Amino acid sequence: MKRIIGLDYLRVYTVFMVFLFHSWMHLGCSFGKLTSFVSEGAVYMTLFFMMSGYVLGLKYKELPMDGAALLTFYKKRLVSVLPLYIVCVILYPPHIR
């Protein structure tokens, strides 16, 4: 799959905006005139997930439709997602009130 640089830039932008949104929401950070722009975190989160799904769909579309290739695809996805998931599961419980 050929990399779409514009999507990469847009994903970086949405991740940064979600970070700012969480800073504003949980830490009370002030962004002055940009606060109304930053406060739309749900829009940035939705856009990020839509773009991620689109990129995964493009990647999936290129796979042959046999069972072995599909199994390999899901194994690679699991290996890339599971470590971060485990870290989050371990680190999150102390923050539950």
TrEMBL record:
Pfam families: Acyl_transf_3. Keywords: Acyltransferase, Membrane, Transferase, Transmembrane, Transmembrane helix. The keyword Transferase applies. GO terms for molecular function: acyltransferase activity, transferring groups other than amino-acyl groups. It comes from the Bacteria. InterPro entries: Acyl_transf_3_dom. Residues 5-93 form the Acyltransferase domain. The chain crosses the membrane at residues 12-35, 41-58, 78-96. This is Acyltransferase family protein. It comes from Segatella copri.
